[in-house]
Amino acid sequence: xxxxxxxxxxxxxxxxxxxxxxxxxxxxxxxxxxxxxxxxxxxxxxxxxxxxxxxxxxxxxxxxxxxxxxxxxxxxxxxxxxxxxxxxxxxxxxxxxxxxxxxxxxxxxxxxxxxxxxxxxxxxxxxxxxxxxxxxxxxxxxxxxxxxxxxxxxxxxxxxxxxxxxxxxxxxxxxxxxxxxxxxxxxxxxxxxxxxxxxxxxxxxxxxxxxxxxxxxxxxxxxxxxxxxxxxxxxxxxxxxxxxxxxxxxxxxxxxxxxxxxxxxxxxxxxxxxxxxxxxxxxxxxxxxxxxxxxxxxxxxxxxxxxxxxxxxxxxxxxxxxxxxxxxxxxxxxxxxxxxxxxxxxxxxxxxxxxxxxxxxxxxxxxxxxxxxxxxxxxxxxxxxxxxxxxxxxxxxxxxxxxxxxxxxxxxxxxxxxxxxxxxxxxxxxxxxxxxxxxxxxxxxxxxxxxxxxxxxxxxxxxxxxxxxxxxxxxxxxxxxxxxxxxxxxxxxxxxxxxxxxxxxxxxxxxxxxxxxxxxxxxxxxxxxxxxxxxxxxxxxxxxxxxxxxxxxxxxxxxxxxxxxxxxxxxxx
Length: 573
Description:
The protein is mainly α. It is built from 24 helices and no strands. The chain has helices at 2-10, 14-45, 47-55, 61-75, 78-90, 96-109, 111-119, 129-146, 150-180, 183-190, 195-209, 212-224, 230-243, 245-252, 257-287, 294-301, 306-325, 329-339, 365-396, 402-427, 433-468, 475-501, 504-533, 539-564. α19 (365-396) packs antiparallel against α20 (402-427) and α22 runs antiparallel to α23 (504-533). The longest helix has 36 residues, at 433-468. The radius of gyration is 31 Å and the shape is elongated.
């Protein structure tokens, strides 16, 4: 009855209100998809630059802030940057101090979206910038449709995402204008003047959609259409900064202690900034008897530009918060360390674990691909260490390092399984053709490295059999094994240089060394047959030696297989 009376007074039907709500939801959906589309294509297109950027993280706080700002502005997602940083911390390759400064910068970088939205609202008498920018959705779609080149497709995806951003914005704006014509809605919203309540609403809504960009853009649109006041929009935006922490909190759950601390740093940083600005706002209102507010200040700073007023507040708020809190970063790190202390129960240092990759890195595929490569390089180092240990053991018949060998073998088996699982998940995500090609070859490399570990285990078994029979290789045989070790070590160095740097010159040098190893293992077998004929070695020892030489040759084959994969993706030089 009451609802019908309100509808009759406003002259708006229930169908019109339902339509406006549906258009609003559609606009939010298009906006979210556009953000995701832009983010994914920007990440893929700038993968190498992102990798280089994060490789420059250092103890300099300003550099950290700069990296966080640039990375977030580039991929249009503070959530992705924060989750990626948590992944780095969880993997132990970034300190809390570095993570904190990058997160500070991410808060500045995320304001770029608001500025883009504000830019799209200019133009009234002529064609508005919203319509002009919306046209990029069609342009990008045509580019994606009529080209097969990966880089051009990514550019088309970025343009399409950029255009869809404004399509969604236009839909939200249209629905807001419909609501702005309803006195009942305007009166209801006008009644929500308590800053704390507005911040809470902004926090909850942002936590639900998990995108501060959407909430900020929605607030800008609501202010622009006259649905809410500038002050209301400002406090909703403040709340969106707290709500954005939900992504980091979710990412920190189930992660390492330092990853949880990183999520807490993000929450404390954003909450502190909001509290400071709310106190400033309260002092201004009370001192001026409610005459001076943030809204009034920004109206005077940017007259006749409601859209710019909101966007500039968001930017100034985040920049000012960074300036205020950056000097206290050390204290903030100490605080979260006390709040979340190290676990009393120490983990087994020898337990298999991942060194570079983490599930949270899946949110940023280009970085995840680089970390996968680092993990494979680490796996190769472990495999080489075990091969060296096995040869040393069989030559000296000293088993003092057998536990280290077993630990390494367990680690290799663990990495084999976990890397394959991680890569399968990673390949389902959006990425450049180069990264996808690399991951395909990486699966073969992992198998090759695991097999090297198996051959090292075979050699240890030969040593154990010989020890049980109280036998040993002759001095000549041991000398040959050591010479073979030197050749394989030289091969390993060339293979890793080729693999890490995509160096085709090192690959060619590795081929030459591998041929030398083939020739040398043949001579090893021939020499041992001669020693057996001369009665220097028994048939049992001879069988072990023949197998060892064969295993060494296979180790070299598997290492060269790893190096060969660069032919699939390395640039010819």
